Amino acid sequence: MAKNEPVDASALPEGGDKKKAGRPAKKKAFKKRGEKRIVHHGFAHIQASFNNTIITITDPEGAVVAWSSAGGIGFKGSRKGTPFAATQAAIAAGNAAKAFGMRSVEVRVKGPGAGRESAIRALQTIGIDVKSIRDVTPIPHNGCRPPKRRRV
Question: What is the pTM for the complete model shown?
Answer without folding.
Answer: 0.72
